[in-house]
Amino acid sequence: MKQGKWYLPMIIPALGALLLDACSFSVQVLPTPIPPPLTSTQTSIPPTAAQTLVPFTLALPSVTPTLISIRLGMFDMLENFMSFGEGEALRSLAFTPDGMVLASAGGNTDDFVIRLWDVAGGQSLGTLNDHTGIVWSVAFSPDGQMLASVSSDATAKIWDWRSGTLLKTLDFPGEVVSVSFSPDGQTLAVGGVDEPQNQIRNAAVWTFSVDSWKPLLKLTEYWNITVMGYSPRGDVLVGGGTSRNVQVWRTDNGASLFTLNHAHQVSKAAISPDGSTLATGTCATVVNAQCTEGGVWLWDLPTGKLIRKLAGFPDFVEGLAFSVDGSSLITASRDGTLRIYSTSDYQPQFEAIPPGGTGVLALSSDGGLLATGGANGEVHLWKIVYRP
User: Fold this and answer.
1) Is the residue at 24 inside a domain?
2) Paired sense of beta strands 357-363 and 370-374, if any
3) What is the C-alpha to C-alpha distance for residues 21 and 32, in angstroms, rounded to an integer?
4) CATH of the domain at 175
5) CA atoms of 344 and 342, how far apart (whole Å)
6) In the sheet where 78-85 sits, what is the strand order?
7) In a domain, 340, yes or no
8) Which pLDDT score, from 0 to 100, does residue 325 have?
9) Which of 45, 185, 210, 324 has the CA that lies 20 to 30 A from 234?
């Protein structure tokens, strides 16, 4: 097992100016890992706004052509090549579909800004400042034209992020903490608290037509919707979290297909590129109301059956993403531990511990860039780096 800065020596043509030196925090490559114990799971959930964007003044350079997709067999060359950012703890990261711009959001007390970054150079492109509460999640539309954000100020906001124009504000009964566009970009789903005074059923997912912003469906759940997402085909929507349940709904009529029960709360969910597997981030072991071991549960999405449990994380699992080719599952726990598994046998293949991590992560749509978040608003960017 190798420590620190490392790479796999290969004689390959240089990839250009983007091959920057890697940072030097602890990294481990796990060639023959020991499987973590199988156990149950839990987590803690978001607690319970509005400010504008500095217009862009620079042409964004394209970085996509020189990137290698992060996938199984390439982890010996995965490096953190750039870090940037500022502000309070990050809650959400999202790439534009072309991977050229990254949005980061968070806040604890009064920092409710959405920041936009030029991925090629780590430079600020401006801010969106119309929320008045914690921004829990952000998502770009599939065509890259819009950015949606949700907040504890009980609003979802839709932006023309290039100009900084606020296109639409959607109001809700309570805080909203999850947001996702459908794969075809025609529908926006928002999840959060429905009736703050109702202790029985007080959470929901609302869907809206993007063309008119008219409401389409209201899908009811309990407590709060901390995880949500569409299947790759858009025929299924998953949501839930605080109730320890993840619901699986049909998107055409809102019919419930399955209720996936967990031992503890769920903080994140990701669906494999082929739509066959759902991964949910949770906690495997709780002692005195504290998560002492994080976990990931894996489900067969077509049948709703539990496939496997992964454990051995130092804290709650807050970040999940499948590689673009489906060969790997990227995970991150609240303490910042980044771990990648092979999906063929779910054995860990890579582990790193960036300083001050929060477990927040995002993978670009081409799989070439991985962003992980820090408690002080810092963003770490990762890519595959060949070195002769």
Assistant:
1) no
2) antiparallel
3) 27
4) 2.130.10.10
5) 5
6) 78-85, 378-384, 370-374, 357-363
7) no
8) 96
9) 45
